[in-house]
Design brief:
The protein has helices at 20-33, 54-68, 83-92, 108-115, 140-157, 177-184, 205-209, 215-228, 239-246, and strands at residues 2-5, 38-41, 76-79, 96-99, 118-122, 165-168, 197-198, 233-234. The protein has one domain: Dihydropteroate synthase-like (TIM Barrel), CATH 3.20.20. By secondary structure, the protein is α/β, with parallel strands linked by helices. Strand 4 (96-99), helix 4 (108-115) and strand 5 form a beta-alpha-beta unit. The chain is globular. It is built from nine helices and eight strands.
């Protein structure tokens, strides 16, 4: 899954892809490099980021999606927590809703269900206002798995097809560096019979865990660890470096 941030303030590449034509060119480059999904986001979730209103988020997304969707030949996901934003994107032809809020917003699960799109449910402890200022305790892995199971069942009760759900244990969201590494190397633990997405690319803990590597080399190494431990999908900024690293799985 190649990351396309159309935000001015993303933690790693904010402002680089805010022009719609440049963003689409970058997305197509990622597909050529081996991305099988493009994930478009217009609101940063980095520590210290300011919330973005739905109107502004849609203003950022619409021109990119208008240009991207007719020319890309892989599924496109939208990284959003807001049902109204997801509704606009789905109506334009987006295939996946990638929700760091775990489909908890009223109407989000129902929207995904009625439109027949896939949904990615991510774990975070608390909410966006508190998650980056807290850390989980020693029972974190069981808590994450239990929370993902509860979020999944809640979504199913609201009409979501279980077979259209992917789970993301939320690396970097309220976990210590050591906890993030445990999650990375035990991806299948969080499956519960569903596909697992691992999203560690360019996150701060990698500098500690892979000292001496540049951020994209460390991110590619982390993606390999995740894939080896059972992740079905990896969400990355540098597709080419990750694809090259993942080729070692088939050697």
């Amino acid at each position: 899954m190649g990351i396309l941030n159309v935000t001015p303030d993303s933690f790693s590449d904010g402002g680089r892809w805010t022009d719609a034509d440049v963003a689409v060119s970058h997305a197509l480059d990622m597909v050529d490099q081996g991305a099988s999904i493009i994930d478009v986001g217009a609101e940063s979730t980095r520590p210290g980021s300011e919330p973005v209103g739905a109107e502004e988020e849609m203003r950022r997304l619409k021109p990119v999606l208008e240009r991207l969707l007719p020319v890309v030949d892989v599924p496109v996901s939208v990284d959003t927590m807001k049902p109204e934003v997801a509704e606009m994107c789905v109506s334009m032809g987006v295939d996946i809703v990638n929700d760091v809020n775990g489909l908890r917003a009223p109407g989000m699960a129902e929207l995904c269900s009625s439109s027949g799109v896939c949904a990615i449910i991510m774990h975070m402890s608390g909410d966006m206002g508190t998650v980056h200022s807290s850390e989980m305790d020693g029972g974190f892995a069981e808590d994450i798995r239990g929370s993902l199971r509860s979020l999944t069942e809640a979504a199913v009760e609201r009409g979501m097809d279980r077979n259209m759900i992917v789970l993301d244990p939320g690396i970097g969201f309220g976990k210590t560096a050591e906890q993030n590494m445990w999650i990375l190397s035990h991806s299948s633990y969080f499956s519960d019979g569903l596909p697992v997405l691992s999203a560690s690319s360019r996150k701060r803990f990698l500098a500690k865990m892979y000292a001496g590597m540049d951020r994209d080399e460390a991110s590619a190494k982390a993606a390999l660890v995740a894939a080896e431990s059972g992740a079905d999908m990896v969400r990355v900024h540098n597709v080419a470096a990750t694809v090259e690293m993942l080729r070692t799985l088939s050697r």
